UniProtKB/TrEMBL annotation:
The lineage of its organism: Eukaryota, Sar, Stramenopiles, Oomycota, Saprolegniomycetes. It comes from the Eukaryota. Residues 15-138, 490-777 form the ABC transmembrane type-1 domain. This is Uncharacterized protein. Residues 173-411, 812-1050 form the ABC transporter domain. Its main location: membrane. Belongs to the ABC transporter superfamily. ABCB family. Multidrug resistance exporter (TC 3.A.1.201) subfamily.
């Protein structure tokens, strides 16, 4: 039991250690663009390898404990044999070879043999159960943590049927003296005596600095958390007394970072209302301004959105998320920066749709917004600061408060755009209005104009290609450093393999001893002691051999698995970004391959050698003993071997079904779904998707389980048949042995020597055959892993090849570029795209959501290469440049900030590996992040959590900006870099970015929907239908009659006309 407990403990440590490595891999693969942008492949690989070392050490210790436990078990069995033989010899000698002898109930050889064979059969069963026991122990260790989660009572159980439900919902929300801090940061209060009442049907906007707790209110209303003190009520009822699922069914949430699932667009929208009809889904998409771009895809609503929605642009994802909330038709609507990712025209239309949604029934709405112009029509505006409500009232009321927080925020936003530009725009408004009225309500979005094309297209691969089989020699080559451990394990295997036929020979000698009445009583007792001693020696030898075998091969197996995982992970990381656009290369599927396939390859190396050596030595020694004692019986046994071999082959095949192309599809898809659901748990909880996810997961697991059940039935049948063949063979051999003895061809001792040695050899063979189960899966797993390892990326990012110019100016040129995403090669995103960006200039890319603005950044970062045309960097085709060098001179701040598990300092330092703490803090200061970092108890050592979940959206974005600033690049790419910041933070960060541009001659490309942020750009390029249709300065573009930019600006000014301007002027 001690050994079982030790194996259980080390198994648990092993799974716990590998889970850390798996988390690193999944995080990196899910955010592969960020890993590539910052040339973080070596650092990420090193982080993964460090985690693997812990798992490797635990796996080796587990192998050692298994060897000790198994060896000790058999040593005890052989010790029991020794005692039984010695004592049996004494009983037989006493009852049969002494005077006057036994008169009744005497012990003879038959009785002793009955006991022996009973023990033998039990020992054989115990030995055959050993691999299964190892599997059970490992499974218990793996299940320990899982059952800890399963058995943990949820503080807020979304699946419970307990709790009250209201017959009708008016929508009155009260937060009374609420105090709250996040469980992961219990020493940092977020809400400090927070009190607020929102009347039914009221439209309330929450504003305040980034990190002031606006989104926390949304989480409390959704009951993602409960307050530490105070109460949150709905229609006068404490939320804690309401059924959580029912509560969330009354609430629609559109978050700051839209979260979609790897399914079709229709399925994602339908998550808002289980059982929604296609007509309802289509209507919701239309009201969210999503119908047109959805219909532009070849598969329409059946288009797959990709892993976490990566196949759609930011604006498209947000509109799908809004449609998901619209189809729910909730009594309470929570909009957390719901339109921040949309371009001006889409925002105007979606805002109108949201307004219409609010007007079609009495609906309570809570809006969180940094862009104050979008909430000026709210019934009430609530200003938060440091966890408390500091001001509340209408826009007009708050603007009358001298030195008021809200007024200062509005004034700060008003100062962001140059006065002369604003005046010029205002003059245009009336003249453009006629053009706008005459034009369509939406600026057309081209069919192929997506930031990332959907994977669900006719050209997308539907099945994995069959991978080529990998030679055994290639695997063994990877284990060359462990040749000493291979020798140790091999010697142990030879010893353990030799044990079984020798066991049979010793046992046959003991059987003969008990019937040898020619001996005196003392001679029989001495012979009993002699054979008992041989069993003791055999047991000790087996124990040593089993320890050497398990420890030696565990070292080889675990180190090989570590190398394969490290090699496979590095190969995945170095693949071009376009490779990840296909569903079979999702983060969950790739992580499953690292976890499962690499582990299965052990059966192709150390496990294979161990069992082959066991088999060979068993056969050689067993048949040597058999031929020596009776060639006739041995040949007879060989005669029935084909029948036994056929049964054994069927048995092995049942253990080892050849893997088809889709063999592991259910397991892989289930793993990907689980990863996706956990990573998006807030969305799952908000839309009550627990049952849907669970049902889907159960269905996928059932797919894999069905194959396993069929294999189990087949295995059970052929196992029984093989066992029956064994008994038939033994029956024949006993008959044939009796025939030979009766004809005085052999003697009794010879027959049992043949039978026992070969029977025990078959026991060893059976154990080895059971351990060899799964070889077909191991071969396929090997092929899968090496298919990735051997794949040559279309864009090699880890290479010394390519030009590395000594002088970097920063001139960028797109020449006649044509481009389509690999997952949809038939739909062109760029059609003769031409743009010149002079060194040191700031160029803004504008256009409708999905017009391909971010595609330019993807091509410049060489996530993709154009199908035709060229992208030049300082006059050199970027395909000829060293990719690592190229990316070292570019920094990207994307629309959705990506942070990795680790400290704030680690995340900032990603921008410049090896940077000092002073450099990190300086970058944070320039990004307006230093102050809020200093407020944390751990300051720069504060853990950001999974995907930065411990920070607010604005805080995450500022960390991402600091990371880019630290690199001090020649080219800066800002893809909606300030969209998540509140107005004051945006103003300060924008000033910091401007100062960064003034530090040195720096080329900057800005992608923006908010046109006021790019009016001072040296050049504004307007994209439409895959081409640059207008370019010039802000003033020049405004002078183009009926120009696209002029139309966009006029609509934004019309939508964002701010009464605050006149107020401040008065």
């Amino acid at each position: 039991m001690t050994f079982v407990a030790s194996v259980l403990t080390t198994s648990f440590i092993f799974w716990q250690a590998y889970s850390q490595a798996g988390a690193v891999a999944e995080e990196a693969l899910a955010n592969i663009r960020t890993v590539h942008v910052f040339n973080s492949i070596p650092a990420t690989s090193a982080k993964y390898n460090d985690a693997l070392q812990l798992a490797e050490a635990a796996g080796i210790k587990k192998g050692l404990m298994t060897g000790i436990g198994g060896g000790f078990t058999f040593m005890m069995i052989f010790t029991t044999y020794a005692v039984a033989i010695s004592y049996g010899a004494v009983l037989v000698a006493t009852d049969n070879l002494t005077q006057p002898g036994c008169m009744s109930d005497c012990y003879d050889g038959g009785k002793v043999l009955t006991v022996f064979f009973g023990v033998i059969m039990g020992a054989m069963a115990l030995g055959q159960a050993n691999p299964s026991m190892e599997a059970i122990v490992s499974a218990r260790a793996a299940a320990f943590e899982a059952y800890g989660t399963i058995d943990r009572p949820s503080k807020i159980d979304a699946l419970t049927t307990d709790g009250a439900t209201l017959s009708s919902v008016e929508g009155r929300i009260e937060l009374i003296e609420v105090e709250f801090q996040y469980p992961s940061r219990p020493h940092i209060p977020v809400c400090k005596g927070y009190s607020l009442t929102i009347e039914a049907g009221e439209k309330v906007a929450l504003v305040g600095p980034s990190g002031s707790g606006k989104s926390t209110i949304v989480s409390l209303v959704e009951r993602f958390y409960d307050p530490i003190h105070g109460v949150v009520r709905l229609d006068g009822v404490d939320l804690k007394t309401l059924n959580p699922r029912w509560l969330r069914q009354q609430i629609g949430l559109v978050g700051q970072e839209p979260c979609l699932f790897a399914a079709s667009i229709a399925v994602n929208i339908g998550h808002g209302k289980p059982g929604a009809t296609m007509e309802e889904i289509r209507d919701a998409a239309k009201r969210a301004n999503a119908l047109e771009f959805i219909q532009s895809f070849p598969l329409g609503f059946d288009t797959l959105v990709g892993d976490r929605g990566t196949q759609l642009s930011g604006g498209q994802k947000q509109r799908i998320a809004i449609a998901r909330a619209i189809v729910k038709n909730p009594a309470i609507l929570l909009l957390d920066e719901a339109t921040s990712a949309l371009d001006t025209e889409s925002e105007r239309i979606v805002q109108a749709s949201l307004d219409a949604l609010l007007n079609d029934r009495k609906r309570t709405t809570i809006i969180i917004a940094h862009r104050l112009a979008t909430i000026r029509n709210a019934d009430r505006i609530v200003v938060l600061c440091e966890g408390k409500v500091v001001e509340q009232g209408s826009h007009e009321h708050l603007m009358q408060i001298d030195q008021g927080q809200y007024r200062m925020l509005v004034d700060a936003q008003s100062r962001k755009s140059p006065r002369k530009a604003s005046n010029a725009v205002m003059k245009l408004t009336s003249s453009v209005d006629d053009d706008v009225a005459a034009s369509p309500t939406e600026i057309p979005v081209p069919v192929a104009a997506t930031t990332s094309a959907p994977a669900s297209t006719p050209s997308s691969p539907k099945k994995k290609k069959t991978a080529n089989q990998v030679p055994y020699g290639r695997i063994w080559t990877m284990s060359q450093p462990e040749v000493g451990y291979l020798v140790m394990g091999s010697m142990g295997s030879l010893i353990t393999g030799a044990t079984f036929p020798l066991w049979g020979y010793l046992l046959s000698s003991c059987i003969v001893l008990f019937f040898n009445f020619k001996l005196t009583a003392d001679e029989m007792k001495l012979e009993g002691l002699k054979w008992s001693g041989y069993f003791l020696i055999l047991g000790a030898t087996y124990c040593v051999g089993n320890v050497a075998q398990n420890y030696g091969f565990s070292v080889v197996s675990e180190r090989l698995t570590t190398r394969l995982r490290a090699l496979g992970f590095a190969a995945m990381l170095r693949q071009e970004v376009g490779w990840y656009d296909f569903p079979e290369h999702s983060a969950g599927a790739l992580q499953a391959s690292l976890s499962t396939d690499c582990a299965l390859i052990q059966k192709m190396s150390a496990d294979l050698l161990k069992n082959v050596l066991n088999v060979v030595v068993c056969l050689v020694i067993g048949f040597t003993i058999a031929f020596y004692h009776s060639w006739q019986m041995t040949l007879a046994l060989l005669g029935v071997f084909p029948l036994m071999g056929f049964a054994s082959k069927m048995r092995a095949k049942s253990f080892n079904p050849q893997v088809k192309e889709d063999e592991n599809e259910g397991d892989v898809m289930a793993g990907a779904l689980l990863s996706e659901a956990i990573g998006s748990i807030r969305t799952v909880a908000s839309f009550g998707m627990e049952d849907v996810i669970q049902a889907h997961f159960t269905k996928l697991v059932a797919m894999a389980g069905a194959d396993n059940r069929r294999a189990a039935l087949s295995m059970g049948f052929v196992f029984g048949l093989s066992q029956a063949m064994m008994f038939f063979a033994m029956a024949f051999l006993f008959w044939f042995g009796g025939y030979l003895i009766s004809h005085r061809i052999i003697v009794f001792a010879d027959m049992f020597s043949v039978l026992m040695s070969l029977m025990m050899s078959s026991f060893g063979l059976g154990t080895a055959a059971q351990a060899l189960g799964g070889m077909g899966k191991a071969k396929q797993a090997t092929a899968n892993v090496f298919a990735i390892v051997d794949r040559v990326p279309a864009i090699e990012c880890i290479t010394n090849d390519g030009v590395k110019p000594t002088l970097v100016v920063g001139r960028i040129e797109f020449q006649n570029v044509q481009f389509a995403y690999p997952s949809r090669p038939d739909s062109l995103v760029y059609k003769d795209y031409n743009l010149v960006i002079e060194a040191g200039t700031t160029v803004a890319l504008v256009g409708s959501s999905g017009s391909g603005k971010s595609t330019a950044i993807g091509l410049l970062e060489r996530f993709y290469d154009p199908y035709a045309g060229r992208v030049l960097f300082d006059g050199v085709d970027i395909r000829t440049l060293n990719l690592t060098w190229l990316r070292e001179h570019i920094s990207l701040v994307g629309q959705e900030p990506v942070l990795f598990v680790g400290t704030i300092a680690d995340n900032i330092a990603t921008g410049k590996p090896g940077s000092s703490q002073d450099e990190v803090e300086k970058a944070a200061q320039m990004a307006n992040a230093h102050d809020f970092i200093q407020q944390f108890p751990e300051k720069y050592n504060t853990q950001v959590g999974d995907r930065g979940i411990q920070l607010s959206g604005g805080q995450k974005q500022r960390i991402a900006i600091a990371r880019a600033i630290l690199r001090d690049p020649e080219v800066l790419l800002l893809d909606e870099a300030t969209s998540a910041l509140d107005n004051e933070s945006e103003r300060i960060v924008q000033a910091s970015l401007d100062a960064l541009l003034d530090m040195k001659k720096r080329t900057t490309i800005v992608v923006a929907h908010r046109l006021t942020t790019i009016q001072s750009a040296d050049l504004i390029a307007v994209a439409h239908d895959g081409r640059i249709v207008e370019q010039g300065t802000h003033t020049e573009l405004l002078d183009i009659p009926s120009g696209l930019y002029r139309t966009l600006v006029a609509r934004q000014v019309d939508g964002n006309a701010n009464p605050a301007t006149t107020t401040s002027e008065e």
